[in-house]
Structures are given as C-alpha cells and as structure tokens.
Amino acid sequence: MRLERVAAHVPAGARLADIGSDHGYLPVALMRRGAISAAVAGEVALTPFRSAERTVRESGQHARISVRLANGLAAIEPEDDITAISLCGMGGETIRDILDSGKARLSGQERLILQPNGGEQPLRLWLMENGYRILCEEVLRENRFYYEIIVAERAGPMVYSAQELYFGPLQMQARSPVFLAKWQRMLRVKHKTLGHFARARQAVPEEKMQDITRQARWITELLA
Ligand SMILES: C[S@@+](CC[C@H](N)C(=O)[O-])C[C@H]1O[C@@H](n2cnc3c(N)ncnc32)[C@H](O)[C@@H]1O
C-alpha cells in the first residue's frame, strides 16, 4: 500500500528516477502499467542493486529502465531528462542529505515524491530553504507503522512556520483521521519520554528536556 500511494503521485508519462530503489518494484510496476515513459533505478549498495537488476530483467523492461549503482542523485545524468524523482523508505535526514549533496543534478523542473520514515521536519526545512513548495502530503498506516508522503516542486521562496515544518502544512489543514491518530500516538511517546527523563538517575540535558516539552505542547495544541 505504501508504494502504491507513492505511485499515485508520479505524474503520468514521467521520466522517473527512483533513488534507493532496492528491489526496483516501483519503476517496474509503473512501467508495466504504462504510467511512466522511462526510469532510472539508482542504488548505492550492491545487493539491492543486483536485486533491482533482476526485477527489471525478469520484467522485460530493461530497454526503458536503467539500473545504476550510484550514490544518491549521481545516478542521474542530464540526458535522462528526468521529470520526477522518488526517494522512499529512508530516514528524512538521509533523503535531505541525498538531495542536498546532489543539488547540482536537479534541474528544478522535477517533481519530488518523498516518503521519509521519520525525520520529516528536517526534510521539510530543506525543501523550504531550497524554494520547494509542498503540493501534496499524505499520512498512511500500514502494519502498525505510520508513513508520510511529501510531494514537492520548486516554486521560488517559501515560508512555513515551525509548526508547519513539524506537522506538515497541508496535513495540519486537512486533519485526516490517520494524521490525528499518528499524533495521538506521538503524544503518548513524548509523555513517556518525559516520564523517563523525570525518573532518570543522570541529569538529562536541559535543552533536550525543553525540546521534548515543546513538542508535547505543540501536539497537545494540535489535538485540542
Ligand atoms: C529501505 S530501502 C527502501 C526501498 C524502496 N525505495 C522502498 O521504499 O521500498 C532503502 C534503500 O535505499 C538505499 N540507499 C540508501 N542511501 C542511498 C544513497 N545515498 N543512494 C542510493 N541509494 C541509497 C539503500 O541501499 C536501500 O536499498
């Protein structure tokens, strides 16, 4: 379901770069449906790279899906004429670092379809600081885990508030049941952490304590 939801955000006919493709399921599924016109599956690690190669070969799509062993956006060349980039199933900080160190390879015309596993706030901060507008956001729950999808395009200077960066500007407005359920769970986690801090034998850094307290307050205000 997670990758199906990601797939739904890839524009029809896109030339897709799926970075950190692992098994290569996303580009292969989209190509099979005729939903994209070309794809690059990028992988930094050898075992998943081979797995992607196998999936592509067995699908018979190797003429239109190129599997490349490369670090982050180094998998993309200008001739690929990429129109959409997916980065899924990695921590938000990792996705941010891949985008940041590969900035020179972004034309600014690509749609970014990002599915971070945690670390959404630093990722949204990077998007804002680099002039990306968040077009669409989704929270979904699968196997007891909550996943977020963030779709963005470069649009010039953007300003999001600290809370918008933390919760997601569009999700804060939409307040879907799954979004609220995620933050109810997160509030329980924050309270538990603060309880541990209160019972800790060693002093917890004041800054850390204040940070978690502030997060718990924001979540309480969101859910009020
Ligand atoms: C957990 S898998 C997610 C696979 C797939 N994208 C998905 O969502 O199901 C993360 C993959 O990202 C790859 N990866 C991590 N850092 C990377 C980087 N800098 N460049 C390319 N691939 C990377 C890992 O090797 C791993 O195969």
Question: How is this structure best described in words?
Answer:
- This protein is of the alpha/beta class.
- The protein has 2 domains: 2-158, Vaccinia Virus protein VP39 (Rossmann fold), CATH 3.40.50; 180-223.
- The protein is 45% helix and 24% strand.
- The two termini are 30 Å apart.
- It has 9 helices and 7 strands, in the order αβαβαββαβαββαααα.
- Strands 3-2-1-4-5-7-6 form a 7-stranded mixed β-sheet, with helices on both faces.
- Helix 4 (92-101) runs parallel beside helix 5.
- The structure holds S-adenosylmethionine (SAM).
- S-adenosylmethionine is lined by residues 3, 19-22, 42-45, 48, 71-72, 88-90, 94, 98.
Summarize the helices and strands and which ones pair or pack.
Blueprint: H1 2-7, E1 14-19, H2 25-32, E2 36-43, H3 46-59, E3 65-69, E4 84-90, H4 92-101, E5 111-116, H5 120-129, E6 132-142, E7 145-154, H6 162-167, H7 169-174, H8 177-199, H9 206-223
Parallel strand pairs: 1-2, 1-4, 2-3, 4-5
Antiparallel strand pairs: 5-7, 6-7
Helix pairs in contact: 4-5, 8-9
The structure holds S-adenosylmethionine.
